[in-house]
Amino acid sequence: MALRAALIVEHEWSVLRLDDYSVALEARMKVVVIGGSGFLGAKTVEALRRFPDVQVEVASRRGPLVVDVGVPETFSALAAADVVVDLSDGTRSRPDALAAWCLESGKTLLEGTSDAETIRRLVDAHRTAKGPGRVVLGAGIFTGVSNLMARDVAEAAGAGCSLTWAVASSPFSGAGKGTIALMVDGTKRPTVKTVDGKRVEHGLSRGPTIDFSGTLRPTLRASLAEAEMLPVSTGATNVETFFAPKPGFLVTAFTMLPAALLAKSWFRTLLEVYFTLLRRFLLRSVSSSVQMVARAEKSEKVFTRTVSCSDGMEAGAWALAAMAEAVGRKPPAVGLSFIDDVVRLEPLTKRVNEVAARAVLVLG
Description:
alpha/beta; Rossmann fold; Dihydrodipicolinate Reductase, domain 2; 2 domains; 5-stranded mixed β-sheet; 18 strands; globular
């Protein structure tokens, strides 16, 4: 009799545990990654699966969950998502309709594009949006972690500071086709800086030599999405952004590209084919380390922050995963915001390194 009672208690305990597990599964945050089968998308999905309270699903034009950012009729497939992460090629596939749908439908979108023109267009269209949905711009490493480190130094310096941000990375190694498209389009787009609170446009040109944690590198004034976001989110009066391609001779190569030819679609197509061949056959398996530095100055006081990683694509995927978790756990205010309005640099870095069980991002 005692044995039977014990078995009944054990059985009931087991059922209770199973029921609790079912409830826990239902309570898991559902993250849908559009472009989750792509180069960066697949790495992000893999990272998201390491987060214990996240259920991740892949969406693309070909499935398994069919979503096409250019076809609003497919957006209903996102109805059950807590967070939508868009990692489709924002340069070729505009996310404007998706952003508008998320805002109108009460969904949370984490937009991963690093295309400066797309960012400016979304900010202009939705900066004063009241929701009920949410659109968060800046997800990954740059954009993304770049925004967080710039926000840190700008807040330390105070409103009205002068802010510079720079990144050193190989534009070809370990890159996907979306990165190639971004680079090609970026060569013909204006470079933006903010001077005394006013937007100033100029062409691709050589920038200053910048110290990246003890290594001096030549830089370019190039089209970067941070130039569109940081003046708005940090309150800095003067903002400049720079790109230091690896190896350094690429600075000369980029500045020698003829402006007249860059305006021609056939020449940009030729560049894309050339860059793609480099990526696929010479540098596909070569990871690119990334070093970033943010510097804010006001009243002769200077504040600096550095972030580095050994593999930029991998670090971007981990950062995206942690950002998606953070956005889902503590949703931002309705409307449009930037990632540095939602999460801070040190907690995000700690979370990434904790789940990855190694130092993916290194702060300095």
